[in-house]
């Protein structure tokens, strides 16, 4: 139970969990127990107040276990339990995020926002980027959208089913256009695939992509077996390119990787040339 410190000061919410305790109580109190189907037939019949005992019943734990959560006491609360609490208290996406961050310091499992059409703001930002090539890709590096300049520099993004990893690691033109292909491209991209494959073990699409790359190319298999490096993203990575768009003159570029707050399941990447 929280309260004033012995010295008369106000308790630190970060230390004793007072903040999440107060929020949990408020969220519970706003739920009318009479509207919860799972509590129909419970004796004694619940009134309007949703009690801690009711929430414990709805989430399949003891009343003491739920009480520990609401009191802000540190326990080994599982993600599945916190998700059941969120459902029982009818929490919004932002409220569920707050619960997870306060209790275990991480986001809820799964995508933080549903996939679907691109938010208009993100689409506008991409289209209106006229100075540099830019594109959006998903977690498996499928090209979701690209601007006009990206299509001119890299026409492969306009092909059906365009995928950065398939093009960069498996397409012959990538080895002509990306100089120092093995060291500057293949080793970096395979290190990124290694991170993705281990961070999303349940993603069948990612597993299939890794398998396709390794099954299709002997160089990639050799590098995969030799290397143990891991790379999360290519932000700030420098490439040397020789593209038809630039009459095959060598240029140096760097990539910038951003996560749109409305669709953090996507990567917003734009490419800027470096001075000679």
Automatic annotation (TrEMBL):
<feature type="domain" description="HTH cro/C1-type">
    <location>
        <begin position="23"/>
        <end position="96"/>
    </location>
</feature>
<protein>
    <submittedName>
        <fullName>Helix-turn-helix transcriptional regulator</fullName>
    </submittedName>
</protein>
<dbReference type="Pfam" id="PF13560">
    <property type="entry name" value="HTH_31"/>
</dbReference>
<dbReference type="InterPro" id="IPR001387">
    <property type="entry name" value="Cro/C1-type_HTH"/>
</dbReference>
<dbReference type="GO" id="GO:0003677">
    <property type="term" value="F:DNA binding"/>
</dbReference>
<dbReference type="InterPro" id="IPR041413">
    <property type="entry name" value="MLTR_LBD"/>
</dbReference>
<dbReference type="Pfam" id="PF17765">
    <property type="entry name" value="MLTR_LBD"/>
</dbReference>
<dbReference type="InterPro" id="IPR010982">
    <property type="entry name" value="Lambda_DNA-bd_dom_sf"/>
</dbReference>
């Amino acid at each position: 139970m929280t309260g004033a410190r012995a010295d008369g000061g106000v308790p630190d919410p970060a230390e004793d969990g007072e903040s999440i305790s107060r929020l949990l109580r408020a969220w519970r109190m706003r739920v009318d127990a009479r509207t919860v189907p799972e509590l129909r037939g419970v004796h004694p019949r619940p009134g309007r107040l949703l009690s801690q005992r009711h929430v414990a019943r709805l989430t399949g734990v003891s009343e003491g276990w739920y009480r520990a959560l609401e009191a802000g006491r540190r326990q080994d609360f599982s993600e599945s339990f916190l998700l059941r609490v969120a459902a029982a208290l009818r929490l919004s996406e932002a409220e569920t995020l707050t619960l997870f961050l306060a209790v275990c310091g991480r986001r809820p499992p799964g995508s933080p926002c549903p996939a679907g059409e691109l938010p208009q703001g993100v689409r506008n930002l991409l289209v209106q980027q006229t100075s540099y090539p830019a594109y959006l890709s998903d977690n498996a590096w499928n090209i979701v959208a690209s601007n006009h300049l990206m299509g001119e520099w890299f026409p492969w993004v306009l092909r059906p089913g365009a995928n950065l990893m398939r093009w960069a690691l498996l397409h012959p033109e990538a080895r002509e256009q990306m100089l120092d292909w093995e060291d500057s491209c293949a080793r970096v991209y395979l290190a990124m695939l290694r991170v993705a494959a281990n961070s999303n073990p349940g993603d069948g699409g990612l597993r299939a992509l890794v398998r396709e790359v390794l099954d299709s190319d002997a160089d990639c298999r050799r590098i995969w077996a030799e290397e143990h490096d891991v790379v999360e993203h290519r932000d700030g990575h420098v490439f040397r390119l020789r593209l038809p768009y630039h009459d095959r003159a060598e240029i140096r570029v760097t990539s910038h990787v951003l996560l749109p707050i409305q669709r953090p399941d996507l990567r917003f990447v734009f490419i800027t040339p470096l001075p000679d």
